[in-house]
Amino acid sequence: MNTPVLSRQRILNRVRSATATVAKHGGQLAEAYAALPRPYIRKGQMSAEGRLELLIERLREYDAEVVESTMDALPVTIEAQLAASGKHRFVVPSGLDPEWLVGGFDWKIDYNLTTAEIELAEGVVTAASCAIADSGTIVLHHSPGEGRRVITLLPDWHLCILRASQVVETLPEYFDRFRAVPALITWVSGPSATADIEMTRIKGVHGPRFLHVILVRD
Amino acid sequence: MTTAILDPKLAPPFREAVLPVLRNPMLRKNVAHATEVIQNKRARLVAEKRDWQQLREAASAIRAHVLENLGAYLEQFEARCTAAGGVVHWASTADEARQIILDLLREEHATEAIKIKTMTSAEIELNPYLEAAGVRVHETDLAEIILQLGKEEPSHIVVPALHINRSQVREIFSRTMGLKDLSDDPKELTGAARHYLREKFLNIPTAISGANFLIAETGSVAVVESEGNGRMCLTLPQAMISVVGIEKVLPRFQDLEVMLQVLARSATGERMNPYTSLWTGVTPGDGPQRFHVVLLDNERSSILARPKERQTLKCIRCAACMNHCPVYRQTGGHAYGSCYPGPIGAILTPQLMRMHYAESLPFASSLCGACYEVCPVKIDIPAVLLDLRADVVNIERKQAKRAFDLMYIGLRVANTLFARAWIFHATQRIGRIGLRLFTGKDGWIKRLPSIGGRWTENRDLRGLPNQTFHEWWEARAKENQ
Amino acid sequence: MRASLFITCYNDTLFPETGRATTRLLERLGVELEFLQGQTCCGQMHANSGFRAEAFSQAKRLIRLYEDAENLVIPGSSCVAMMRDQYPGIFEELGNESQRRELAAFLPKVYELSEFLVDKLHVEDVGAYFPHRVTYHASCHGLRGLHLGERPFKLLSKVRGLEYVPVENMERCCGFGGTFSVKNPEISQAMLTVKLHDVLSTRAEFCTALDNSCLMHLGGAMHRQYAAMRTIHMAEILASTESSPMEALA
User: Which of B272, B294, B296, B313 is the best residue to mutate to test the A interface, defined by the most A CB atoms within 10 Å of its own CB?
Assistant: First the structure.
């Protein structure tokens, strides 16, 4: 029976001797890594407007509802979205912009809410960190304005407020923008889905089934 | 239902294992339909992606680079993950991995665990081991629940229940979930599973997962999924245990820009799968406060040591190979006797077994090359298959039973026949005369004895012409003199 | 233009008419063709079955035989694929430096038939006449090994009188795979059933390809089932003219 320390050493020894004959870049791992070919497209070609149009198109393909707004009109737009939902109780991240907590609704601010309390919410409102137009992906880094992961997971309805300046065209552009890696990331591309039963696509298994996006021209 | 054996030590050889599958029209119809759907979706997205071949090249290069420097990247991952509050364990064998996981569960006083689908746990046969030790494991992927509740075996690595149709799912759910009025509408069935699982997600504090990628640079773990059960399992519990093959490392966070683009398109024919989660160690206040990674070797280091076979480990488990394999299309996964089916299974399984088992798998291929063409990380599966065939034969050469193997003898004899033109020509003349016995008036052979019978079972063979090409040439040359 | 014909072991024995057609075709196009009587086999069957040492001995012999040949023309895509895809690895593993040099000098001389016509002779219209409905099966070795691409289609499109009809799922393997059909006959037959359905659905009179191994498999089933279709190697279509139609019809 191998002790933990023995196993670690055993595996690393086997791995090292397995690749001992591979020519290395004079022992410099970073150099070998830098020399890797990257002939794929990194930067998109679209204009800012084109990018936004593409994102909206992709989001709508996912049955997400997308409306545009300006910074000034944002609280009004939020109010309209919430009112149209027919829902009243919303959970929000502790760092959400207070101006977005429009009147007439029951706001549960996530100061360490219990799961049971989150379950009572009918929807969640958050900001986002980035959106990738090519794949219709919204990226959450779970910052104070985006909230703990659980609050965008348990509720059935999610309103996401996205600024136009947060939208990139390609996935590599996202990685260019965020060189400092966040500890927690969720990439969301459409509602959850399964095709496990006879390859019939069913949307909305776990996680919010309804996504609404306000795209703010900033 | 099927009674497939997915343990390579117990499974019958491929030729035998395919027979019940070939006689199952429903399974064959489902497999053909499923593979066709994914094929078409993938094809559309690949056609739209102008830099698809460039992405493949980069993905292949990144994976090859990782494997060549695996030790360094594993150590880097360990250091960063540990610094971020994770605990890294190392398991040389499947046995050790199971033991480590059980010990961790005991530390958590866990009698139950929720689980995200992971091929690695199937490889080490984790569930039966834990169940025997008194820990109930609850699968949470829709397909995995269907299989677990229905006591079935998976037949595909991305869509494991594709051999089960909706009425069979209805039967399983209504029986095990006590739902009398359940219809067979997939939407309703999915709703039943959603409801069934909600209670488990909220109340079971320990989760087991695998991982799609480990990021060495940051010590992060990435899980790619469609249903959201992954997010549930890695957000709600108190403790998380991830069992991951050592080959799953990527050097840097940025490398996901390549891998995520090729993975979703290859696996499910989407530009991006619905949910991809990344976490680094432990984050106070968000998610499990105890996080363990169990790094699994289980013969991967042996595969790593063979230059031609090393590429097997580039695999990112997208299943594109089996979706395009004309053999798999007719059989689904059950015929491969392993949790890894299809082309990747045909090269991975025998190697994980150190060529002691599953030796029929490298021959379960017509070498058409469709797998290599679609593999996002450019694993030359046909080349590895050929190498493994040579391995199997080299083992056979030392075994006494080869004296009774018609094919072995036949090939050894054939080699002598080809060694000299005069022997070859004489054999042709003898064969021509001999086969006249079996040739009908129309010049065709309808039945051959012994191993020749494998041809004539379903095909005719035209009788050997009276003159070979080389004889014709010789005669013509003489004429022209 | 001089060329040496490697007929392939199975064509020599089972399909000499493909060789005769290839000869007629190339000589009609002005090629000075030679045939070395010492040729036997390229070693593919052994290599694919895991008998690498045996394949190596056959490969060495073949390369030596064609030491002085200028162009080697082969009416069999799987044999060409064997030489290009597998010989290098086998020589790397089992050969010495001098043998690897011989191989390096040998490989550029090798041409599959359609490659020789299109790339070396620069002809697409070979003056053929074949007034029949024809479908084409893309043998896996030619498709993915040799990347023959448009060549077969260019050649077929110039054949006068030929009515071409594409087969669905053209790129799907027919299930022969050499020793695969002997080691796993049931699954090979299942794949054949599926392929035959697609091929017969074209309602062509002939199914053609650039490799007789696939055609033997498909054609054997067609004959057994009294299907209204026959197989024919493309060399025989291309060799057919009004005055000299393909042998089987003459």
Answer: B272
